Amino acid sequence: MLRETFQSLRFPPVREVVKVVTTRRRSHLLIPSPHKGMGAVPHPRGTSFRVWAPTAVEVYVSGTFNGWSPTANPLARESGGYWSVDLRGVRPGARYKYRLMTPAGDLWRIDPYARAVTSSAGESIVYSAGNAANDPGGVLIARDNLVIYELHVGTFYTPAGRVPATFDDVVQKLPYLRDLGINAIEVMPPMSYPGPLSWGYNPAHLFAIDQDYGGPEAFRRFVAAAHRAGLAVILDVVYNHFGPDDLDLWQFDGWQQHGLGGVYFYNDERAITPWGHTRPDYGRPEVRQFIQDNARMWLHDYGLDGLRFDATAYIRTVYGFDGGYELPDGWRLLCSINEEIAALFPGKITIAEDLRRNAWMTRPVEQGGAGFSAQWDDVFVHPIRAALITPDDDQRDMHAVAESLTYRYGDDPFARVIYTESHDEVANGKARVPEEIWPSNAGSIYAKQRSLLGAVLVFTTPGIPMIFQGQEFLSGAWFADTLPINWANRATYSGLQELYRDLIALRHGGNGRTRGLRGGNIAITHLDDQQKVLAFHRWQDGGPGDSTMVILNMRNVAYDAYALGLPAGGQWQVRFVSDAVRYDPDFAAYPLATLSASAAPLHNLPFTGHVPLRPYCALILSQDPE
User: Fold this and answer.
1) Each residue of 12-55: pLDDT tens digit?
2) Do the domain assignments include residue 473?
3) Cys bridge to 313: 173, 216, 320, 408, which one at CB 3.0-4.6 A?
């Protein structure tokens, strides 16, 4: 255990006060910048520079504008450990670094607030953070209509056949996502990272888009293009740890304790994370402000529509579980960010990847919660994947499936994001659902049929549905940052894309025929754990065009006329059949388009209908609007 590493060390119960060494330069001769803002802030006459380095003795900015002189441009000391200077004539595009003279030596550092860098181990770039002129503005989508597509920029679409791809490459596929019915894209972290390839969860520079993805300008073009296509953009941010590689924040101004990270990090046991001992010190106001400034920048400067916070359990606790070593300062940071977003950016959403079934994450801050709009839901993904993957029908736990469908955080049915595939679920020893069902034979009829049952549940269960890149056309066995998704599968499995398109359209309300799938109400009307048949009723207000019935047969057995209870009499239309021949040549034509409900109570519902159920098949039924 990492914790044992620290048992032999003694830590002060309260952080020591950092001793500031008096500067040799007469600081009263230096004039601080009159401009607000951290990092390099361009203005009409030049650029203002400001950095936090509380134990530095002297600070200089060196760059292309002064021939990289180590002494030409000193910064003036401000209160609180800040240093600043305003330099005339320095324009966007200039490269620079800070030179910090400290008791630990002479240190050259990339600006922590750099909006652009040449590389993770290179130089800062002065960057103008104005809004993109061709961006029509953000896209606000109600949570009950939100459909998320998670993608990794480097592997999503590689027209040149190389990885990593860029944001400009992703732009080429935005019409495809829009036509699929997607209305929100969740982008895995694109912040500057070490080397050419990464998932993104090892950010070296939080404010800078990686140059391998095209840098900040390519990101702006992508956001603007997504907005023009009616697609919201949600960005994955990482505040539970930084780096750990190419991390100039590490011992930034020379001060540290116990060989740990210095002023930006905890310097005791609280530094421990599964990804390195680089947890930010949420107890320092300057570090909290650094993180909060970062969250605000993405929404303000880039016009993003939401943020997804990685591994929030490791922000609010040391070891990632409730009832253990709590981090109250981390909890307060999450609350503060969400409060500010709600006040400054109404309608923007924040999503927590907490995965601890903690309803307080999505309760309002004023009610004692963390204030997130939604959270990734492991109550759904794990039981559903288990039911899909298990090879023995008798071992399929239909009660666990039903509990997954009806679970909610508090009274809000849309406080959870539900999925069967995400970057975590299809990597690190795990594969895509069809591959898990039948390894090395993901294109088999059984793998397709059972994986599609999962897709049906994602789009018919109360919550915010999400799919992972390429899921809609059986792309790849697993996810890796070296493996682009195989777009040739789009032609091979073109029918499956139609299936996803149809499911998403029904989830959006089916042109007034399945409004209940946007509602928050669900009732399990029938569960047969022996026959592995499950039926549930979805509705918003109820009635024709609203009440929707979903039926699943999760056993390799066919039924010619399975009797099911229905909430209303009259004609029910078969809106969707998961194994219809139009979706795949291995499937078959379904023999029924309409069924009549007779006035015979069944399954605690007043009417009865009989439907054919093929093996591993799902149906969606509703009545025509009046």
Assistant:
1) 332 333 333 344 444 458 999 999 999 999 999 999 999 999 99
2) yes
3) 320
CB 362 within 8 A of CB 409: yes
The first and second tokens of residue 619, run together, are 């149906």
Where residue 153 sits, what CATH number does that domain have? 3.20.20.80
Token pair of 278, please? 């680089």
pLDDT tens for each residue of 63-116: 999 999 999 999 999 999 999 999 999 999 999 999 999 999 999 999 999 999
Co-location of 37 and 164 in the same domain: no
In a domain, 387, yes or no: yes
Query: Residue 438's pLDDT is what?
Result: 97
Q: How far apart are CA 625 and CA 568, in angstroms?
A: 13
Is residue 250 assigned to a domain?
no
Query: How many Cα atoms are found within 13 Å in the side-chain-facing hemisphere of 400?
Result: 14
Structure tokens at 501: 């398109």
Asked if residue 471 and residue 535 are part of one domain, the reply reads no
Domain edge (last residue) among 125, 154, 189: 125
Q: Tens digits of per-residue pLDDT, 507-519?
A: 999 999 999 999 9
Q: How far apart are CA 407 and CA 412, in angstroms?
A: 10
Q: Are residues 471 and 542 in the same domain?
A: no
262: in domain: no
Question: Which residues touch 323 (CB under 8 Å, ≥6 apart)?
Answer: none
Q: How confident is the model at residue 626 (pLDDT cuts 50, 70, 90)?
A: confident
Looking at the fold, whether 171 and 229 belong to one and the same domain comes out as: yes
Same domain, 495 and 527: no
Same domain, 341 and 469: yes
Q: Which amino acid is at 566?
A: L
Sign of the alpha-carbon torsion through 155, 157, 159, 164: negative
| Residues 6 or more apart in contact with residue 485 via CB below 8 angstroms | 155, 156, 157, 469, 470, 475, 476
pTM over cut 0.70: yes
Reported as a single tens digit per residue, the pLDDT across 342-378 is 999 999 999 999 999 999 999 999 999 999 999 999 9
Residues spanned by the domain of 466: 143-243+276-507
